[in-house]
Specification:
Rossmann fold; five-stranded parallel sheet; 6 helices; about 130 residues; alpha/beta
Amino acid sequence: MRALDARYCFDLLRGDAGAADRAREWESQQEPLAIPAPALAEFLRAGYRQGGRFLERSLTLARRLPALPLEEEAADEAERFGGDLDRRGLAVGNLDLLIAAVVRKNRGILVTRDRAFQRIPGLHLETY
């Protein structure tokens, strides 16, 4: 299962060629797609901020993607490895930690261009 980061969703709506190519590839392969709940919140916040046509397109895309819930176990894991990264001087933002923990809990592959996720151990990543 591919878990889409907010940045991938932004890029897809903006017509990024790499994001569009991946979307077509996954559609032809019937690849299951989802969005972690924290990434969904981040994505929709930008849609509401921009409004208009971008908001409409954001809501349409969001309705097509099942949301992976943020559960207590994932939240605990996020802050556990977040604390470890902080001690090593490799801080990652809380929202990214929550996204990563949700993806890890669901044994997914996070699709993103955000390099901060590379600091998170055991997280499977895919770029586009």
